[in-house]
């Protein structure tokens, strides 16, 4: 098997070799970039390898606004979590949580309320294992856990013993799928999946979504997004864009909260520094409640 350490031109550190060895021992293909580690690299995190960083370099050439878009998406997550805690929610289910990086859900929520419980879910082995290590180091495993599952298996997530140990489904839960559904194809019926999750949650629960798009972008950026989507065919997961109308349909059965489905920069902005005109038209996000 060709690995990231074998490819010419990649700067491979001792940390990379340790991670690659661990992945290969676990039977994971290390020859392709992994979207969760790539996203971590967009944010300047450390849970990525040379293969992932090489992909990021190419992605930036295709779509120069990708790192600002990732940062704005992360800022949206921060604001959405703070708003949920302020509304009295103390339970979070973060599906597609990815590799641990700065400003995770539990770090934001626990600062606002030490009684918060968080369940992280990811299908990627390295994301789950590194998250477990981080949670153990932080000493929060009594309130925060991570499980390995796929969002397309809702019963496997909702009925997992670790989920049930931390979350009370008779009380509101904030369901988060931030920068996740653009890796779920229409063939997997994301709207039906979201409806199933909604039906399993208590009234007062919230849904937090964000998604890459290009329908509101100028022509030159639409071309960039198309090339960017095509680049993800060389990773472990394909990427799909959705329009504002398609994003709206994902919230069917939920009550969308103000300011509606907007650019991540426009969702209850609290920091002018997060404004970035280059990435403004490249994403949609929204928060909705279950009545």
Automatic annotation (TrEMBL):
It comes from the Bacteria. The keyword Iron-sulfur does not apply. SUPFAM superfamilies: S-adenosyl-L-methionine-dependent methyltransferases. The keyword DNA-binding does not apply. InterPro entries: SAM-dependent_MTases_sf (IPR029063), SAM_dep_MeTrfase_SAV2177_type (IPR006764). One of its GO terms (biological process) is methylation. Keywords: Methyltransferase, Transferase. GO terms for molecular function: methyltransferase activity. It holds the Pfam family Methyltransf_19. This is SAM-dependent methyltransferase. It comes from Kibdelosporangium banguiense.
